[in-house]
Amino acid sequence: MGEQLQDHDLSEILKAVSDPTRRSLLTTLVQEGPLRVTELAGRYAMSLNAVSKHIKVLEAAGLATRRTMGRVHLIEANLDPVRSVDAWFGELRSIWELRLDRLGEVFSEGTRNNERSVTDAKKDDPGAG
Amino acid sequence: MGEQLQDHDLSEILKAVSDPTRRSLLTTLVQEGPLRVTELAGRYAMSLNAVSKHIKVLEAAGLATRRTMGRVHLIEANLDPVRSVDAWFGELRSIWELRLDRLGEVFSEGTRNNERSVTDAKKDDPGAG
DNA sequence: GCTATATTCAACCAAATGGGTGAACAATTG
DNA sequence: CAATTGTTCACCCATTTGGTTGAATATAGC
């Protein structure tokens, strides 16, 4: 059961939550539980169709799921994909700290001249992928 | 120091990292430290100008900073804004768990129908539009 | 001063995005 | 069946986006 961190998925998730309306929708769903499309749309100063489209984007990103019950579509939030985002940012941070470790504390004296500290850190290069 | 989580900033940060090229740029900067625009651009199958624009987007989001040294612009990653993203997702998660907790309380009070509150909320509908 | 290098600015283009409207489809109800 | 309700589909429109190219600006070196 590996989580295949596909670049495309990550882009889709991040793009989905980069829109304030969609973030708001997601928050609403998270705090109130599954809601109908119309109920959701009623809270925004935009057309039902616009909200419907936003929901589709959330669905495509895996951040929302739909349970169709008759003519009513119940939309529910799903925060699982957020873990992919966390994972990516986490990885970024550890790469960052790894490099800072290699550089050592020599760097903290000033940010203008860094050439020498780099060569200094070369003695202990693990080459972490 | 409160995190004055401006919606606009969050959107800008998320949109910035929603592009795979920009994520790649950020990763490169994080693992290799400050780099010149040309050096960065040389790693991508796109024009220097395209990369230059991507860098600007990262800068605008606060994810990269620029130190101009003569004609050379050193671009450096800055992961601080990521904390805003973490904060938002974290908030979302706690809201989620809070609601689940509330649902649990309702159950232990002797309610027998699990989805009643959602579907039944129709009678309390304020009316969209 | 001239030339080469590093980078941005400006204009342009195709595609994607966020929004709107009206019609269509699906399901419930009288 | 007909009417109503919930939702999507198909278009249209303006703006943004990601990319291109060519010119402009700034600095470095001969």
Characterise the protein shown here:
2 copies of one chain form a homodimer. The model of chain A is unreliable at 110-129 (pLDDT under 50). The first copy, chain A, starts with 6 loop residues before the first helix and ends in a 9-residue tail after the last helix. In chain A, helix 1 (7-17) runs antiparallel to helix 4 and helix 2 (20-32) packs across helix 4. Chain A folds into 2 domains: 7-77, Arc Repressor Mutant, subunit A, CATH 1.10.10.10; 82-123. Helix content of chain A is 54%, strand content 11%. Chain A has 129 residues and is mostly helical. Chain A contains 6 helices and 3 strands. Chain A has helices at residues 7-17, 20-32, 37-41, 48-60, 82-103, 115-120; strands spanning 35-36, 64-69, 72-77. The first copy, chain A, has a 3-stranded antiparallel beta sheet. Chains A and B meet through helix 1, helix 2, helix 3 and helix 5 of A and helix 1, helix 2 and helix 5 of B. Chain A binds a DNA duplex (30 and 30 nucleotides) through residues 19, 21, 36-38, 46-50, 52-54, 56-57, 68, 70-73.
